[in-house]
Amino acid sequence: MQDDRRVRERAHAIWEQEGRPEGREQQHWSQAEQEVGSEGQPPATPPGDTSASLSQAGLNPGDEAAPGTPGTGDGICPECQGTGRVAKGACGNCGGTGIIVQGIAGG
Asked: What Pfam families does the record point to (predicted)?
């Protein structure tokens, strides 16, 4: 029962970090189960490598926040000018989508 409480708390934290999106309960719960189940095990990626945490959160390196975060919107990737491609293939900044999530100036 202790693990259920920890999974529930972690899933709630993930939901809040992603801007409280609707309809993602199962993904948040699964991610929380995986994270709680792997506690105490060595990390799968070297310290300082943020690529795994970015992909788990649904982020690309060029994103400033998770999709759906209040105060953000889609923008054109400055690395590929919205094409999703660079000389060596798919753009790593936007994950090949041509779009990044960025903050929107407020008044």
From this structure: DUF2934 (PF11154)
- Residue 106: domain span: 60-107
Q: By three-state DSSP, how is residue 89 classified? A: strand
In a domain, 44, yes or no: no
Are residues 35 and 13 in contact, defined by beta-carbon separation less than 8 angstroms? Answer: no
Q: Which residues are 85's β-sheet partners?
A: 90
pLDDT tens for 2-50 read 578 888 898 898 888 888 888 888 998 888 888 887 665 554 444 444 5
Q: What is the pTM of this model?
A: 0.46
Contacts (Cβ under 8 Å, ≥6 apart) of 74: 99, 100, 101, 102
